[in-house]
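hey so i finaly got around to running the thing on MICLK protein from Furnarius figulus. pasting the sequence first so u can double check i didnt mess up the copy paste, my clipboard has been acting weird all day
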Amino acid sequence: RKQASEYSTSSSDDEFEFKPSLTHKAKRALRRRRKLEKETKQLIKQEELKRLHKAQAVQRQLEELEERQRALEIFGVELERELRGEADSGTKDETQMLHEWFELVLEKNKLMRYESELLIIAQELELEDHQSRLEQKLREKMAIDDSLKDEMDLNEEDEI
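ok and heres what it spat out for the 3d tokens, dont ask me to read them lol
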């Protein structure tokens, strides 16, 4: 009996010693998880800022492009009038005016291609932003224990 009671006492002592170390490990794991979550949020924020800056740069380039297109359009209208003989062409001959006209058309086509490229970049940025938001939403959904989720939560998680 004496040995049995000593055994049970020592066993319960071990149990008490084991629990604090378990909670210490759990606390450490929780701290690591929170630190990782914080770092992930910072990275996401940095990526969002990069996309924002890139989107602003694209927007500025589109505005500048629009201005250049307007200027070309005005020049083109004047050149057309001169070619038709509606405006005073001064010392320009018809060959020189046609050459300017074709240069103008080439420049305008180049600007239109550039505009298309910028619009594609802008669309890519929008898609990257949308993907980032979906990933964040999925992380939040997956952080919740499955036992606490109802059917709607599980379906939404699958849909994401």
